[in-house]
Amino acid sequence: MRKILVTGGAGFIGSHVVRHFVKKYPHYEIVNLDLLTYAGSLTNLIDIENAPNYRFVKMDIRVFEEISNLIIKHQITDIIHLAAESHVDRSITDPNAFVSTNVLGTCNLLIAARNFWKDNYNDHLFYHVSTDEVYGSLQETGFFTESTSYDPRSPYSASKAASDHLVRAFNHTYGLRTVISNCSNNYGPYQFPEKLIPLIINNILSQRSLPVYGQGQNVRDWLWVGDHVMAIDLIFHKAISGETYNVGGNNEMKNIDLVRSLCNILDRKLGNKEGTSEKLITFVKDRPGHDLRYAIDSSKLQAEMNWSPSKMIMEGLELTVDWYLNNKAWLQSITSGEYLNYYKKHYSN
Ligand code: NAD
Ligand code: TDX
Question: How far is Cα 291 from Cα 289, in angstroms, rounded to an integer?
Answer without folding.
Answer: 6
